[in-house]
């Protein structure tokens, strides 16, 4: 691979912040004196962050949010904190990576023929598929969330996974966070109470959050299922205006008969 | 055991109670890190930043990913983590300075003279094409690397990431009869595999240039 296996492991451990003091000194010396090694470090960083995003989309953003959360528990230094002074904001790098990963995955998936299953023969099924796929339940972080009734978010997620939808609805009364409201809306969907679900997803679709596109797709599906075409178009246009990654699908659905 | 019960803090975090971890941050920084890191970073804001980055990585590795806690002095370990991060931040800073130097050189060569001269426009176009080529190379490398993954990893990308299927349902289909953690571990190994394959492809691509 150009550099030795031992060096590759050293770089891997550097990004895991695992090098001890003497190893770090050796790393710094090599980095300063060896151009190939410097380049390998940059390439490893690209490869690692991209691979992580490929398997866990939004992981970098999730860690950034976590870091911001930890910062809330610390007093900021007296001077104005500009943590990325002279350093490119991580968000930009992550944004480029997400673009890179999704672009490649889309290309790879398309050439593998994965797209062929999603036909537009049935717009309701298409919309439902989009709504379901707009949420990655494995990536839903409720560890630091509590409901208005002080129930831990993870406990509510467990109730949802155990299909105790009535309990989820009870526990998420007056819920303030997008994650809990999403679970509330989904619980209503599971119970077939679609009008109630719309009432939950509607305000969720108005606020900026990571779940806004999911709320919009659920509104598209529920209204399409109810035959409310005007409402469907309104939400599809909202997805297009926000330029979410699913814009193409929204445009496609706008063209339905 | 020292001032902090690390096992308790980590175990609580793993079951979703992060209050002990959050409560530890300020006293740990004030008593054990602030002044030590100031000596290394020479800046209070940088000391704060590397501490925050180190604690976020600590949380990711030992609470989220459930790695085994290192044996021995945990505070000393976190201090080393902070030093790793400080070097990383310096590296990124230097890289940016180098890019600036290139821009300055271009200015000296007269490319960014007043207005958009024909010559200037040509350079901008070239830069744009070069940037695109570099991105294309990365995309090709990534695509090749994904193609070389084992079938399980490909299935995880295609079904879990792209089609949004839950890991729990994939677990059974992919023959993981053990705990849910087994497939999570598989995902971690796939990330490591893809990192290496992508890294190798990028290196080979460099050789071709």
In short:
The complex is a heterodimer of chains A (257) and B (209). Helices cover 66% and strands 0% of the residues of chain A. By secondary structure, chain A is an all-alpha fold.
What's the SSE blueprint?
The complex is a heterodimer of chains A (about 260) and B (about 210).
Chain A lengths: L4 H11 L5 H13 L1 H21 L3 H13 L18 H23 L10 H11 L19 H9 L3 H7 L6 H13 L3 H13 L5 H14 L3 H14 L4 H8 L3
Helix pairs in contact in A: 1-3, 2-3, 3-5, 6-11, 7-8, 8-9, 9-10, 10-11, 11-12, 12-13
Chain B lengths: L5 H9 L4 H23 L2 H21 L9 H35 L9 H30 L3 H12 L4 H7 L6 H29 L1
Keywords, please?
heterodimer, A: 257 residues, Serine Threonine Protein Phosphatase 5, Tetratricopeptide repeat, 2 domains, B: 209 residues, mainly alpha, Arc Repressor Mutant, subunit A, 8 helices, 0% strand
Order of helices and strands of chain A: HHHHHHHHHHHHH
Helix count of chain B equals 8
CATH C-level class of the largest domain in chain A is Mainly Alpha
Q: What's the oligomerization state? A: heterodimer
- Considering residues with a beta carbon less than 8 A from a beta carbon on another chain, report the largest interface and each chain's count: A-B, 73 and 67 residues
């Amino acid at each position: 691979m150009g550099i030795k296996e031992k060096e590759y492991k050293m770089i891997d451990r550097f990004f895991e912040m695992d090098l001890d003091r003497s190893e770090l000194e050796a790393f710094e010396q090599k980095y300063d004196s060896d151009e190939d090694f410097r380049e390998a470090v940059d390439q490893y960083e690209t490869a690692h962050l991209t691979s992580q995003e490929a398997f866990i989309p939004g992981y970098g953003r999730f860690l950034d949010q976590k870091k911001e959360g930890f910062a809330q528990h610390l007093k900021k230094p007296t001077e104005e904190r500009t943590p990325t002074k002279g350093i490119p904001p991580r968000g930009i790098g992550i944004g480029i990576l997400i673009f890179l990963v999704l672009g490649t995955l889309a290309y790879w998936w398309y050439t593998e023929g994965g797209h062929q299953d999603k036909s537009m023969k049935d717009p309701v099924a298409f919309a439902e598929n989009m709504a379901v796929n707009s949420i990655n339940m494995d990536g839903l972080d409720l560890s630091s969330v509590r409901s208005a009734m002080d129930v831990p978010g993870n406990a509510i997620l467990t109730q949802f996974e155990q299909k105790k939808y009535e309990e989820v609805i009870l526990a998420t009364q007056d819920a303030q966070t997008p994650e809990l409201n999403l679970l509330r809306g989904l619980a209503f969907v599971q119970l077939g109470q679609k009008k109630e679900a719309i009432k939950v997803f509607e305000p969720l679709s108005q606020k900026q959050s990571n779940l806004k596109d999911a709320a919009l797709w659920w509104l598209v599906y529920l209204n399409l299922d109810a035959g409310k075409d005007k409402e469907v178009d309104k939400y599809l246009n909202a997805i297009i205006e926000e330029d979410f990654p699913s814009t193409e699908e929204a445009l496609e659905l706008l063209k339905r008969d | 055991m020292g001032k902090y019960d690390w096992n308790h803090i980590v175990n609580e975090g793993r079951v979703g109670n992060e209050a002990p971890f959050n409560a530890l941050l300020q006293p740990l920084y004030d008593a054990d890190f602030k002044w030590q890191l100031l000596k290394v970073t020479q800046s209070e804001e940088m000391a704060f930043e590397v501490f925050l980055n180190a604690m976020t990585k600590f949380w990711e590795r030992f609470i989220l990913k459930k790695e085994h806690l290192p044996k021995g002095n945990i505070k000393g370990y976190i201090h080393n983590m902070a030093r790793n991060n400080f070097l990383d931040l310096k590296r990124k800073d230097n890289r940016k300075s180098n890019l600036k130097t290139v821009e300055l050189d271009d200015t000296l060569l007269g490319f960014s003279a007043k207005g958009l001269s024909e010559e200037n426009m040509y350079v901008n176009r070239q830069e744009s094409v070069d940037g695109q080529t570099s991105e294309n190379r990365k995309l090709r490398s990534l695509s090749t690397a994904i193609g070389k993954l084992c079938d399980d990893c490909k299935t995880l990308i295609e079904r879990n990431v792209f089609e949004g299927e839950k890991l729990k349902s994939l677990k059974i289909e992919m023959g993981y009869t053990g705990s849910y953690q087994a497939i999570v571990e598989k995902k971690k190994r796939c990330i490591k595999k893809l990192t290496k394959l992508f890294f190798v492809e990028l290196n080979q691509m460099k050789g071709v240039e």
